[in-house]
Design brief:
alpha+beta, 3 strands, 21% strand
């Protein structure tokens, strides 16, 4: 998922990401951190969305859209391809 220019670590429930090529630093909290971990494990977006839906009291279609938007943002920041 990530290149050698992307370094990340989980500390407690947060994910800290450094894009060394851009010199940019990111912190993902709670749901974003969970999505990131599942993405790094190669899970499909629908599977991730279903897991988030099962954990939180929310609308599945909203979860799917939110995850799609989040993934698009990660791509725009060159954190994933």
């Amino acid at each position: 998922m990530s290149t050698d220019q992307i370094v990340w670590h989980k500390i407690e429930n947060d994910i800290y990401i450094l894009n060394m090529a851009k010199g940019a630093y990111y912190v993902l909290k709670e749901v974003g951190a969970k999505v990131w971990e599942h993405l790094t494990e190669g899970e499909k977006l629908d599977t991730i969305a279903q897991g988030i839906y099962n954990e939180y009291d929310c609308c599945l279609e909203e979860v799917k859209q939110d995850i799609t938007d989040f993934v698009d943002e990660l791509k725009s920041e060159d954190l994933i391809s």
